[in-house]
Amino acid sequence: MMKTTCLAVVLQSVAKKLADLSAKGVTTIIGGGDSVAAVEKVGVASAMSHISTGGGASLELLEGKELPGVLALDEATPVAV
Asked: Which InterPro entries does the entry link to (predicted)?
């Protein structure tokens, strides 16, 4: 129980700090289901610049790695609708 309570306090503090930074113009990116759930629970999800449930794929994209799906979109021929 103690570990869970401490973790909740830390997550709440981090989420609020990210919201404060976002309000100051800092780009804040939340990636992964657990992180998304945490900022939603604290009530600051709408303050974030971007939220992705991509998790590992989001991290790889931020690291500059090439993702097959993104590459395919980059190479796709635009279609008029």
From this structure: Phosphoglycerate_kinase, Phosphoglycerate_kinase_N, Phosphoglycerate_kinase_sf
- Contacts of range 23-30, beta carbons closer than 8 Å, 24 or more positions apart: 23/47, 29/58, 29/62
Q: Is 81 part of any domain?
A: no
Mutual orientation of helices 2-23 and 33-42 as an angle, nearest 10°?
80
pTM of the model: 0.68
Q: What is the pLDDT of residues 19-60, one digit of tens each?
A: 999 999 999 999 888 889 989 999 999 999 999 888 888 888
Is residue 42 situated within a structural domain?
yes
With 80 as the cut, is the pLDDT of residue 4 above it?
Answer: no
* Domain count along the chain: 1
Q: How far is CA 52 from CA 9, 17, 41, 42, 46, in A?
A: 23, 19, 16, 17, 13
